[in-house]
Amino acid sequence: MSRSVKPTPLTRSALWHRALGLIPGGVNSPVRAMRGVGLDEPFFVARGKGAHIETTDGRRLLDWVQSWGPLIFGHADGETIEAVRAAALEGTTFGAPTEREVDLAQEIVDAVPSVERVRLVSSGTEAAMSAVRLARAATRRDRVIKFAGCYHGHADQFLASAGSGLATLGIPSSPGVPSGVTADTVVCEYNDVDGVAAAVERYGEGLAAILVEPVAGNMGCVPPAPGFLEALRLLCDASGALLIFDEVISGFRVARGGAQERLGVLPDLTILGKIVGGGLPLAAFGGSAELMVQLAPSGSVYQAGTLSGNPLATAAGLSVLRRLRDGAVYEQLELRAARLADGLAPFGRVQRVGAMLTLFAGRDEPVERFTDLDAETYGELFRGLLERGIYVAPSQYECVFPSIAHCEAEIDATIEAVGDVLGR
Ligand code: KE4
Fold first, then answer.
1. How many domains does the chain have?
2. Could you tell me if 347 and 244 lie in one domain?
3. Less Cβ crowding at N or C end of the chain, within 10 Å?
4. Residue 363's domain is classified under what CATH number?
């Protein structure tokens, strides 16, 4: 039998041009094109291990993106790989109940304070849109308040920007989104209690939910101002709307129970993703039994998914969540993220909650809401670090995600490289 001859690997440019001829923009998610940081073409990843990735053109990079947050133990961690391998040998999908889905649901319910029942889905977008549908059904109302700079996936209703002014009815922020869909999305300013109170005053009767990232991770890391989340909780209680925490990033990252455990404010519904799936396509949404039983088939609110609770994804998720029962993991994450944040502090404003943080280079004042950040400066920092073998988020509007695989050597090398690039 002829040995399969491995084709000569394409150069990065050849691979990029091949991708451009087959995939819109050459990528399967826009930010991966790395356009926002001045690269003509992105690199392609061949493999990853721990804190590092290797590109198809042979570079080894220290990776602080970690696939945008799922990899709390780093790339290809042994226990996750073993769990997925063993699960795969028994089949990849059944479209029928499996015990591992029940076990993962147990881990989530045990960890997240406000969650009594949970539904597994395949992406954060799917979890967010399903949670909002449930909130609208439970309240028999349509309006949803979201916040500028917070991202909840690409479902039509979330692609809304502030209309004629903030706290007005949303207008589509993407072609293809019907204006009728965003007309029920009200956009407010993050950390602006007066503004959201005014919106509730104006729309309260028809308000189904306030949807928020309890620690914002899509405008860089922006922590909630003291009292902001508490105010949202009170406004929801007063108006009969539901409070929905999008913990796709913060869940299992800032604490085992997410921001709601760390900051002590409980939502009515929680959206989870990334870490909960251990790096495989799995997300979830959960809340009280009273709310969640309204979902089909126990209730009439329809929601479904062929690959929901996929056997490989639940194996990966369980492998990770079971290890996160050990509080020492969070102690280590805190120490490492704090070391990085302290080391970067001389170079600008560093904002951090647990193991999610952002350096706003050259900036002194805090970033408390969505604002135009200096993309050019950030692009220079990104390219300078990449030249030194360090890969940070290809957008200032993202975070860096320390993992257990990032040790002192990686942290100190990064701090030194930032100083080198910024000339200090
Ligand atoms: P996905 O549909 O991409 O699994 O999750 C959407 C989502 C929901 N909520 C929050 C708070 C999120 O951050 C995300 C997705 N995060 C981005 C990066 N910030 C994913 C990266 C990408 O879009 O390629």
1. 2
2. no
3. N
4. 3.90.1150.10
Q: Which residues line ligand 1 (CB under 6 A)?
A: 29, 31, 68, 123-125, 128, 151-153, 213, 217-218, 246, 248-249, 273, 283, 398
Model confidence pLDDT, tens digit, residues 283-326: 999 999 999 999 999 999 999 999 999 999 999 999 999 999 99
Which tokens in the block code for residue 375?
A: 């993309």
DSSP code for 95: S
CA distance 200 to 143: 10
CA dihedral 173, 190, 352, 279 (to 10 degrees): -40
Spot the catalytic one: 274, 330, 378, 397: 274
Burial class (CB in 10 A: 0-12, 13-18, 19+), 383: middle
pLDDT in tens, 339-386: 999 999 999 999 999 999 999 999 999 999 998 888 889 999 999 999
Beta strand pairing call for 283-287 and 117-121: antiparallel
215 C-alpha to center of ligand 1: Å?
14
Distance of CA 272 to the CA centre of its chain: 8
